[in-house]
Amino acid sequence: MFPCRKNKSKVCSVKKNDGNEFLRYFAPLVLWMGVIFVSSSIPEADFPSLSWGGWAKIVHLIFYSTLCFLTWRALHNQSRVDWLARHSAAAGFVVAVIYGSIDEFHQLFTAGRHPRVTDVLIDGFGACIFLLALQCYRVLKGLDSTAY
Question: Between the N and C ends of the chain, which has fewer C-beta atoms within 10 Å?
């Protein structure tokens, strides 16, 4: 059971599956994970150097905020697992943090790159930025801010 798309006060038990869920919702998520993986595979020597060293942290925030958004969007719109659709915001955060952890582990095997716990924390903060924006949007639009 979950809120219906057109009438949020009504409870629906079956979502319509038009057969294009993967291409519409999950393919962008998988592609974005690939972008993150490829970008973390670039050796440090090949990265452009900027005078301000904090740009890498801004990139982390943007990458993982986007990852959280795409995960939320895919899970919120999928029709196979109702409880996952209902808890898609929390799942988006968890996926972003776990993928950030895996990405930092992956950097052990990339020349000049080093895994950092602070980067995983920044990844989680990036996910929180999206969740805060989602909550603000839902409140401003007068939507049920407890149902994601």
Answer: N
Whole-angstrom Cα distance, residue 115 to residue 89?
26
Structure tokens at 9: 């006060």
- What are the beta bridge partners of residue 12? 2
Position 79 scores a pLDDT of 82
**Residues 20-55: b if buried by 16+ CB within 10 A, e if exposed:** ebeeebbeebeebbeebeeebeeeeeeeeeeeeeee
26 phi and psi angles, rounded to 5 deg: -90, -30
Closest-CA residue to 67 (of 106, 30, 102, 14): 30
What's the DSSP call for residue 25? I
Q: How far apart are the first and last CA of the chain?
A: 13
Q: What is the pLDDT of residue 145?
A: 62
H or E stretch including 90? helix 88-106
The string of pLDDT tens digits covering residues 73-99 is 999 998 888 899 899 999 999 999 999
Report the half-sphere exposure of 13 (CA within 13 A, side-chain side): 0
